[in-house]
Amino acid sequence: MVCMMEGTMLLGNLEKSARKAAAWLVNKTPIRNIRDWGIAFSLWPVHFTTACCGAEFAASAAPRFDTERFGFLPFIASRQCNLLFIEGTLTKKMGEAAIWVYEQMPEPKFVIAMGACGIDGGIFWNSYNIVRPMDILPVSVFIPGCPPRPEAVAQAIIMLQRKIRKGEMVKYEF
Amino acid sequence: MTVEERILELLIGPQHPASGHMRLVAKIDGDIVVELRPNIGYVHRSVEKLAEVKKYLHIIPLVERPSLADTTANNLAYVMALEKLLGIEAPPRAQYLRTLLAEINRIHSHLYGLGIHGVMIGSSTAYMWCFGDREPFIEIAQELTGARLTYSYIIPGGVRRDLPQGFEDRVEKVLRYLENRMKDYFDIYFNNPVTRARLEGVGVLTKEDAIKLGVTGPNLRASGVPYDVRKIEPYAAYPELDFEVVTREEGDALARVFVRIGEIQESMKIIRQVLKNIPEGPIFHEKYVKMVPPKLREYMKETGEVKFPGTFANLRVPAGEAISRVEGGRGEVVFYLISDGKSLSPYRMRMVTPSFRNVILFEHLTKGHRVADIPAIYGSLDYFPPEADR
What we know:
The complex is a heterodimer.
Chain A: E1 2-5, E2 8-11, H1 14-26, H2 29-40, H3 54-60, E3 83-87, E4 90-91, H4 92-104, E5 110-114, H5 116-120, E6 130-131, H6 133-136, E7 141-143, H7 150-165
Parallel strand pairs in A: 3-5, 5-7
Antiparallel strand pairs in A: 1-2, 4-6
Helix pairs in contact in A: 2-7, 3-7
Chain B: H1 3-6, E1 8-12, E2 23-29, E3 32-39, H2 47-51, H3 59-64, H4 71-86, H5 92-120, H6 124-145, E4 154-155, E5 158-159, H7 167-190, H8 193-199, H9 207-213, H10 218-221, H11 229-232, H12 253-277, H13 286-291, H14 294-303, E6 320-327, E7 332-339, E8 348-352, H15 354-358, H16 360-365, H17 373-381, H18 385-389
Antiparallel strand pairs in B: 1-2, 2-3, 4-5, 6-7, 7-8
């Protein structure tokens, strides 16, 4: 492709070069820092309760623990969310739904697995109807406990924010 | 268009703020619900099957997990069935402590239900207030037992811990706080014209239907049936306590909410009576206290913390069957245990949870209502899917 601009002539695929330049710019320090800072403080978990840890998750969104101060507010539609919270056990039937929800979410997206069941099944480890979240989803942070206290949920959010702000989690590819 | 062509199938959930951990399959004609079928089983974790390979004492935490907001009811019901098989009875002080924890749990379980109902009908204030006021109750339960929700406090032969020092004063403070807050709740939420319009006359369950469908708990009492296991088949310290069964005649969503509020007030009455009348004495059955080594027995006397005797590791239960009933926050919890007398685990454990008995109401109550009434009815039932699916 050839493009003419006031006496200069540009050769090559302009669209591709523009995308390349944008990717370079977005992944370069000052803009990357601002971008990661923005993502870290706008984590929107999708409203998807998978098991009983939802009771503690609800408590952590309530006044005493108030995770909204980290820019973290459960939201309705998966298309507008970037964080999937696996709240406890993931059964086979719910695992299917979790994959659908995860695939609907836009990039960049993160997964936090809550509770001992989210790690390796916890008290239900030998149940015939559970799956491990790490087998089907890329989990970033695990929260141990059965059920974890709301403070632990807050800790997990801060850990994820730190991970994002280190710049390893998010990479834009064009 | 014919009726069949007009009818649209709408799938609500499992990822939906008003569906919880299940899917509602609604058939709608315009805005009117023709049929609503709950698709349950999203949280089925095979608790009953797992109980067959776990030891008797390890089942206590297992049966608590399905109903995380109301753990004491399951814990108490299981231990009561186990005690019937073992042929022992907890001392009176332990019975009073069990009652105390059950009532604290009932209050915060009801506040949980009211909060979820609030957010389902679009009142974030109700959610924030109920969950905020639930925390003091969780805190006093935590002081008594050491955990926020999963107490595992009740063990065969007694309870794990004695009352901490100065506990009565702190409980009284919390109770007075909630009593004062109740006025604000009525001003802002329960007597709010929006709440009234959303809930009054919605999802009416008649007395005959409620009995016929086998509904249980506050949902049954809201239809005017004074059925409460605490009165009909008293257990723990309930025979010695004075309280009333809260009923309502209307049977609509608002009545179900008001029954819960009435029960919170009755529970506060019970807690005050328990703390006033609690007898002195041991909190663990003397048969087991004798089995504890003397040094640990001294420690138990000093701190009020129960140390398990060695037999609890491999608890053997005589052959037989036992059934127990407990009135939990959401309704009647039934546990049925069969022991073959040889193995370390029960031959069969059956748990009948109130949520599973109430799930039939989804189909029954929503017929003919508008789509927007589905969350209003759902929330008013205080349905907890993990409890129903087990």
